[in-house]
């Protein structure tokens, strides 16, 4: 794992965008793994600037999101499909339908999870996966206790995650869904390059485990230690316990 301590969120965003720019430069039809949450937003802003400057194009690229709340109405602003459209996809030149996510309104949830796995495989797998990390060490929504070999599935959200994410639901923890779809740790580990970004002191404990802890389902992100090409971009506060 390559661990880079940056001067802050802006430099982390530039480095993550550099990796995507280089990938699209050599493989314009690359498959990108896109994350939601607040951490990747500066990276997405940087990608929009680079596309506007003519440095990159997403016109032949494809994308898969990491996870999705189950049961939020189609037009809910916090549905991850809508979040990623608002924050990145609708601001750059992705082709229509080039980016997909698990269907949080599917009638048959197990079938939807299996269909999502198949769609990723049929696209040839993910070339570069952007990741954030939860304060409890989750990646995507793989909560502590997730199998290190898990695949896309339905997962109950940990109380810590619901409380962390209440800020996106006007502070109302009861409004945060209880169930989600998440790509599994085994699914994420098949991406050819993982780029995890963490900013702020709130992530310091999870980052300490990620970088220095034993690989364990108690801190799901630690599985990244076994990935042959993983980059971890940290600001000083997130790196403060290393
Ligand atoms: C969320 C998402 C994750 C994200 C993480 C951290 O619940 N499911 O994909 O990486 O928690 O979010 P944030 O970047 O807002 O701190």
Automatic annotation (TrEMBL):
<dbReference type="Pfam" id="PF01182">
    <property type="entry name" value="Glucosamine_iso"/>
</dbReference>
<keyword id="KW-0119">Carbohydrate metabolism</keyword>
<comment type="pathway">
    <text>Amino-sugar metabolism; N-acetylneuraminate degradation; D-fructose 6-phosphate from N-acetylneuraminate: step 5/5.</text>
</comment>
<protein>
    <recommendedName>
        <fullName>Glucosamine-6-phosphate deaminase</fullName>
        <ecNumber>3.5.99.6</ecNumber>
    </recommendedName>
</protein>
<dbReference type="InterPro" id="IPR018321">
    <property type="entry name" value="Glucosamine6P_isomerase_CS"/>
</dbReference>
<comment type="similarity">
    <text>Belongs to the glucosamine/galactosamine-6-phosphate isomerase family. NagB subfamily.</text>
</comment>
<dbReference type="InterPro" id="IPR004547">
    <property type="entry name" value="Glucosamine6P_isomerase"/>
</dbReference>
<feature type="domain" description="Glucosamine/galactosamine-6-phosphate isomerase">
    <location>
        <begin position="9"/>
        <end position="227"/>
    </location>
</feature>
<feature type="active site" description="Proton acceptor; for ring-opening step">
    <location>
        <position position="138"/>
    </location>
</feature>
<feature type="active site" description="For ring-opening step">
    <location>
        <position position="136"/>
    </location>
</feature>
<keyword id="KW-0378">Hydrolase</keyword>
<dbReference type="InterPro" id="IPR037171">
    <property type="entry name" value="NagB/RpiA_transferase-like"/>
</dbReference>
<feature type="active site" description="Proton acceptor; for enolization step">
    <location>
        <position position="67"/>
    </location>
</feature>
<feature type="active site" description="For ring-opening step">
    <location>
        <position position="143"/>
    </location>
</feature>
<dbReference type="GO" id="GO:0004342">
    <property type="term" value="F:glucosamine-6-phosphate deaminase activity"/>
</dbReference>
<dbReference type="InterPro" id="IPR006148">
    <property type="entry name" value="Glc/Gal-6P_isomerase"/>
</dbReference>
<comment type="function">
    <text>Catalyzes the reversible isomerization-deamination of glucosamine 6-phosphate (GlcN6P) to form fructose 6-phosphate (Fru6P) and ammonium ion.</text>
</comment>
